[in-house]
Design a protein that fits this description.
single chain, 74 residues, 73% helix
Amino acid sequence: MVDLYHSGNSVKELSGEYGVSEVTIYKWVKEFTPIGLGEESMTPKELAAIQKENLWLKQEVEILKKAMAIFAKK
């Protein structure tokens, strides 16, 4: 559906032809349209997952730094 939208079909046409609400099609387009160019592109959902993982890893590093400081004092 997203590919059909990007190939020039309007959301209204797709909604009528496939019986899917326009709101749902807009949601799919937003969710599954790649960000970036070429092989480096990703969907917003993939980007959000990477950002979440990055935040988790930063928190882990901070915890390990604090633990190292505690053990270095002993």
